[in-house]
Amino acid sequence: MPVIQITMSQGRTVEQKRELVKVLTRETARILNAKEDGVRVLIYEVSKENWGNAGVLGLDM
Amino acid sequence: MPVIQITMSQGRTVEQKRELVKVLTRETARILNAKEDGVRVLIYEVSKENWGNAGVLGLDM
Amino acid sequence: MPVIQITMSQGRTVEQKRELVKVLTRETARILNAKEDGVRVLIYEVSKENWGNAGVLGLDM
Amino acid sequence: MPVIQITMSQGRTVEQKRELVKVLTRETARILNAKEDGVRVLIYEVSKENWGNAGVLGLDM
Amino acid sequence: MPVIQITMSQGRTVEQKRELVKVLTRETARILNAKEDGVRVLIYEVSKENWGNAGVLGLDM
Amino acid sequence: MPVIQITMSQGRTVEQKRELVKVLTRETARILNAKEDGVRVLIYEVSKENWGNAGVLGLDM
């Protein structure tokens, strides 16, 4: 039943997202001894003005 | 004080969202013996390339 | 594929959680024209010292 | 390592987001005796049809 | 209506959480020109074996 | 800057969590062409009475 939520900068290709879903599902199921069928992946894309690190907006890095 | 967060495929109508907010708030308050006033609902819409199930991207289903 | 995440005060009974999962799944599927099979519900319980409203800690209300 | 996630109505300026990231990071680090370097802030913007309070859609308030 | 969710290492005092809720609410309302009444803060505490940075478990740092 | 949040049933070993953090960080960084240094992983453990699938509580499966 693992649910994986990824928040990342927008702009990745469909191919990257397809591989991300495939690989994270496979590896998580393998490590946790869970079924791949039960793994759900959700991707939240945020623009550079919507995240910050160490107090600095992504846009300003 | 319950906060309900729903992640779902984009494309639902305003009317569906209005009913979702109304019904989930009412039912959650009823079941938990909480006040409707304190229930917050947040909806996160994701495109078909931003979620996956069982290792397969929504776009490919 | 809706994923519903509920953050609420701890201390509810198993029976309340069972009904919450059942009813929110049924109503969400009905309103969104989705399959109940695809609805996932996750409950996060927080103690009164781990949430606040209007700047006041739950513990102090 | 605190991760701060803010869900808010869309439409704020870049300047507001820049200050939000700067101030929340600084205050969180100060209060928790943590390093600013380790604080991550993520902003999720939702439209008025994607949130509700007390059972009422933001759009209808 | 901002909802602020903080995930942090467990072990902080009630006093720290009280100040965190108070200050983050006040500053967020001020910067966003929102009412303090509408700000909700949720704190999720995780143990050192439940988070990682740069591929290393918190427990091993 | 990817932030990965995993909600899963409680009861996994530290060794499983260590490998989960290591592998998900490595694979995510590789697929997204991001630095491993910027990847944060957060694990939320929930008991069987705190999640449901298809309307059924985990405890009842």
Automatic annotation (TrEMBL), chains A, B, C, D, E, F:
Q: Which GO terms describe its molecular function?
A: isomerase activity
Q: Organism's domain of life? A: Archaea
Keywords from the UniProt entry: Isomerase
Q: What PANTHER family would the database entry show? A: BSL4019 PROTEIN (PTHR35530:SF2), TAUTOMERASE-RELATED (PTHR35530)
Residue span, 4-oxalocrotonate tautomerase-like domain:
2-56
E.C. numbers: 5.3.2.-
Q: Which Pfam families match?
A: Tautomerase
Biological source species: Candidatus Nitrososphaera evergladensis SR1
- Fetch the InterPro entries from UniProt: 4-OT (IPR018191), 4-OT-like_dom (IPR004370), Tautomerase/MIF_sf (IPR014347)
The entry's active site is 2 (proton acceptor)
Membership in a protein family: Belongs to the 4-oxalocrotonate tautomerase family.
> What is the official name of this protein in its record?
4-oxalocrotonate tautomerase family enzyme
